[in-house]
Amino acid sequence: MQKFDKILLFYKTTQEYYTMFSEINLKEKRISKGFSQTEIANLLNINRSSYHSWESGRAKPNQKHLTLLSKILDVPVTYFESEYNIINSYLQLSPDNQVKAEEYVEELLLSQQTSNVTPLFSVQVLSDIQLSAGLGEGFFDEFETETVYSNEEQYGYDIAAWIEGDSMEPVYKSGEVALIRSNGFDYDGAVYALSWKDSVYIKKLYRDEDGFRMVSLNKDYPEKFIPYEDEPSIVGLVVGHFMPVEGV
User: Fold this and answer.
1) Structure pTM?
2) How far is residue 72's CA from residue 4's CA, in Å, rounded to a whole number?
3) Is the keyword DNA-binding assigned to this protein (predicted)?
4) What is the pLDDT of residues 90-112, one digit of tens each?
5) What is the pairing mode between strands 177-181 and 159-164?
6) What is d(CA 194, CA 203) in angstroms, rounded to the nearest whole number?
7) What's the CA gap between 184 and 187, in Å, rounded?
8) What's the CA gap between 200 and 194, in Å, rounded?
9) Above 60 in pLDDT, residue 141?
10) 8 Å CB contact between 36 and 51
11) Whether 123 contacts 147, CB under 8 Å
12) Helix 63-72 vs helix 37-44: crossing angle, to nearest 10
């Protein structure tokens, strides 16, 4: 038995008639035949409110009433199935064209499922370095990387590292990945990754005569001054950030 034949056979059960009943098909056919809801209800020996519930979708007729409706409206019982047009057209095809129809539907379904898949892009993040958006975290000379995923492809960066803390909120959030371009200090007021006193920070930097002013976006954190004599090192300019996709 062909796969589509099995589907058709399954449709012929009483339960499937009930589940797939189309109130739209019923209403349109009643109107086209010139019947009122009351007239149909009287022919079925039921009250009008019961019939109205079928056309409104609140209830569905049983097999007995479906059979009577098909006789009154001069249609096959299958007409009241929501998939009637599809099934009826399929049954009119030649065996060869039925096979083609099945194959085409399967191709459409596969294409639809594929188009609903969101592409993910991998990013290698430094495992042992966290860019502190707080009070500072340890900097390691040797480190490993781990793979995370973004729903957008990331460009133009050399280093990716974790952000920790809330001093750069609301723009940069703890748990995000910062993307850094290793090009040293570029201009005042940009956001940089900075290594200072064995810690790495992500802050806005301003270059003064004797050092850098390190400024947080979160006003709860005070500005810090870093003298050049402390030998701070600019890791690079922060050119982007994203929250990794979870559960991958």
Assistant:
1) 0.52
2) 30
3) yes
4) 778 888 888 888 888 888 888 88
5) antiparallel
6) 8
7) 10
8) 5
9) no
10) no
11) yes
12) 120
Structure tokens at 78: 């299958």
Beta strand residue intervals within the chain, DSSP E: 121-132, 145-150, 159-164, 177-181, 191-196, 199-207, 211-215, 224-227, 233-242
Pick from 7, 6, 20: nearest CA to 63: 20
Residue type, 195: S
Question: Encoding tokens for residue 108?
Answer: 């459409």
**Domains of the chain by range and CATH?**
3-94 (1.10.260.40), 121-242 (2.10.109.10)
Quickly count helices (H) and strands (E) in the chain: 8, 9
pLDDT tens sequence across 146-200: 899 998 999 999 889 999 899 999 999 999 999 999 888 889 999 999 988 878 8
Report whether pLDDT(144) > 60.
yes
